[in-house]
């Protein structure tokens, strides 16, 4: 494998940071939310952590109206 | 004018509080970063796969065109879909929560409601799309430093298609009032109908779908800028007609 990680850092760092912002915001909102329309807190946390990008988007669309 | 600016501020604050606008912008920036990245690592991935399966072939280095190809395929499919999913409920959730009734009975003009909602969507779409396109453009310039034909026009076509989709969301929302799913499926249905119609080569050039199908052709020089004139004109006209119909229909929508 001749992949050079160093070369790809200008892409990987912003991608990682942006996903982190999405995930952390969603997690904070989930923890502060009391009543849930679908599922419960644990399931939402799992969804947001496991599904990149799609998970937080799903949460914002379905729970935050 | 005061009603419009107040409502616009309300939309901004609302989408800021529920983080939808930020989530949308972040996803669009991710698309902007991901596209040149995919184009850059594609030859490496291909060569690794080929090594594993024992095929020997020369894989050409990726070019600036590959980067834009990735951008448009991401944006035209995922980007637009995410935009519709996040903001398709902008009008329907007001109906389902009955939040417009008080405002309208206190003298808020119905036309203003739909004008502001549309303006807000156009504003966000333009902002997100321009940022995303700029990010891809800067990365592509930095890593490949090649020029492409009709770059601005090519980017503008997808933007225009976005406006068309926004007008469609508005029109569908005024018909299906409380059901976001109905809005979603009507947008999807029209896209599918247009895709099916564009199988016929004579009609294809006049459909809005042609705009997001010919970004790459334009960049590669296979299509001239005059070729997309008709579909642009028709898309623009359809967008205006849809907005007009939405405003007319919204005046008659019962609210209770």
TrEMBL record, chain A:
Topology relative to the membrane: Multi-pass membrane protein
TM region(s), chain numbering: 12-30, 42-62
Claim: Disulfide bond is one of the keywords in the record: no
An annotated GO cellular component: plasma membrane
Primary location class: membrane
Record domain Cardiolipin synthase N-terminal: where: 21-62
Alphabetic keyword roster: Cell membrane, Membrane, Transmembrane, Transmembrane helix
Protein name: Cardiolipin synthase N-terminal domain-containing protein
Automatic annotation (TrEMBL), chain B:
Keyword Zinc (UniProt): no
Repressor as UniProt keyword: no
GO MF annotations in UniProt: ABC-type transporter activity
Parts of the chain that traverse the membrane: 21-42, 75-93, 114-139, 151-172, 179-199, 228-248
GO annotation, cellular component aspect: plasma membrane
Swiss-Prot/TrEMBL keywords: Membrane, Transmembrane, Transmembrane helix
PANTHER family cross-referenced by the UniProt entry: INTEGRAL MEMBRANE PROTEIN-RELATED, MEMBRANE PROTEIN
Protein name, UniProt field: ABC transporter permease
Organism: Salinicoccus cyprini
